[in-house]
Amino acid sequence: MRLRIELRGVIRIASFNINGIKARLPRLLEWLEETRPSVACLQEIKTQDEGFPAAEFEKIGYKAIWHGQKGFNGVAILADGAEPVEVQRGLAGEPEDEHSRYIEADVFGVRVACIYLPNGNPQPGPKFDYKLRWMERLRGRMREIAREEVPAIVIGDYNVIPNDCDVWSPPAMASDALMQPASRDAYTRLLHDGWTDALGTHNPQGGVWTFWDYQAGAWQRDHGFRIDHALLSPELADRLVACGVDKAHRGREKASDHAPVWVTLRD
Which residues form the Endonuclease/exonuclease/phosphatase domain (predicted)? Predict the structure, then answer.
């Protein structure tokens, strides 16, 4: 009998940039079975649609929808014992954009959008310009969701360090696209539209990391930063019970460079 840790009347929605679903499938299955989120949003699955290991998730009770891309990007939504009902994949406004970075579904009475926002490096340059355009397109979609007045969460890898307290060393990252004023301003505009940054609200002093680079012993020295975020609509923010980071999973063998983030909500 599989262990379920979720409480009656509560749902847990989590996000995990897995950094290659085939390479880290054992770690992903391990995390799912140990923590048992109601919904798991994945980023950087790095596989074409036909290569997505849906059958492996079905074996442990999860059903999935996904938006893949060969070797890069890719997002997915998994639900424990339920079929996510797809609402949208991709963002409008730039028809030539073929990156697989956005998927949205209704599941357990919540609108769930899973995102993998562009990194934007090197900056300045076309990749940073694309990042900012993508963020504006995301804002447009989030405004559309807000007008529906549904309980909603936009969760995933935002590739934005919102504040100096969200990074181990602001000077070390000062030239990075993740910390540029334009990136931060675009993120702040999402919050000003009425969305709540769950981790940021619950940890106003910062010091909570979700990413540690593979280089320079970043994990061993705890040189991390917070770029994985869960933004809640007003209809969902009132139901927030707890949020956190499954930091220990970053320290396991052949782990992703991200740790899962999660929110617990009253059902």
Answer: 14-258
